[in-house]
Automatic annotation (TrEMBL):
GO molecular-function term, one example from the UniProt record: N-acetyltransferase activity
One of the Pfam families matching this protein, by short name: Rv0428c_C
Gene3D superfamilies according to UniProt: 3.40.630.30
Official protein name in the record: N-acetyltransferase domain-containing protein
Domain N-acetyltransferase residue range list: 114-246
Length: 246
């Protein structure tokens, strides 16, 4: 990775913090009751002396939790890791783009009809979980949404909404950067520009917190979201994908 390229692997990890994590010689084992792959995967930051053994140890850790072993493979992963996981039969999943935009080029303040709060309201949570929560089946002693709320509350963030809570998003200030997360629009309220209003509200809020650039992550297959972000000045700056144990 170029020295001037921001460490997006680390920024994303910090902005979406798993409630439980273990540092294993620079690799981070993340656990959040199975809620989101990001918070329940290995973040392999840097080389390990014995790569095969390092993968074995990660597999043992997640087996002890009753969860599949998942790796997030980004720019800071060891070059030999992806081939090693492929050799073991790990499935490649969810190729994801990191997109960035300079906030200096974003004009205007918070759009009319939107608001940004310092904590998620119940309508905010209901909309986001209604769109995203179906991917996270219940299981274990802690309800899935409770795990999600623990992740959301792990760092300072702004919670934007529009259309009486029908569209929501989350902004995480990280120094010069603002991370955009949890963009969701209720299916019955789509194609009304509410997602764009939420995004612009978060960008305006981010400028007010001192950020000079914004980043977000979006799966390559989400053409609609990508078109929205490109229309607001975001361009591709990097990416990552997951590897899931067979």
């Amino acid at each position: 990775m170029d020295e001037e390229t921001p460490p997006f692997d680390r920024l994303v990890n910090q902005a979406w913090p798993a409630p439980h994590r273990v540092d294993a010689e620079g690799w981070i084992y993340r656990h959040a009751g199975g809620v989101t792959k990001r918070a329940n995967s290995v973040l392999p930051l840097g080389e390990r002396r014995d790569l095969s053994r390092a993968v074995d140890e990660a597999e043992d850790f997640y087996a002890g939790l009753g969860l599949p072993c998942v790796f997030s493979v980004g720019a800071q992963a060891p070059p030999g890791l992806d081939p090693e996981l492929a050799r073991r039969g790990y499935r490649r999943a969810d190729p994801t783009l990191v997109m960035t935009a300079p906030l200096a080029e974003q004009a205007g303040g918070v759009p009319q009809g939107t608001e940004v709060r310092d904590s998620p309201s119940e309508p905010w949570l209901r909309t986001w979980w209604g769109v995203d929560g179906g991917r996270h089946p219940e299981g274990g002693r802690v309800p899935a949404r409770e795990w999600a709320e623990r992740i959301l509350g792990g760092v300072r963030a702004g919670y934007a909404s529009a259309g009486a809570g029908a569209a929501v998003g989350r902004g995480v200030p990280q120094g010069d950067w603002l991370g955009i997360y949890c963009m969701a629009v209720d299916p019955g309220a789509r194609r009304r520009g509410l997602g764009r209003s939420v995004l612009r509200a978060l960008l305006a809020w981010g400028r007010d917190t001192g950020a000079s650039s914004a980043y977000l992550v979006v799966t390559m297959t989400n053409a609609g979201a990508r078109a929205l972000y490109e229309g607001e000045g975001f361009g591709v700056a990097g990416g990552y994908h997951y590897r899931i144990a067979p």
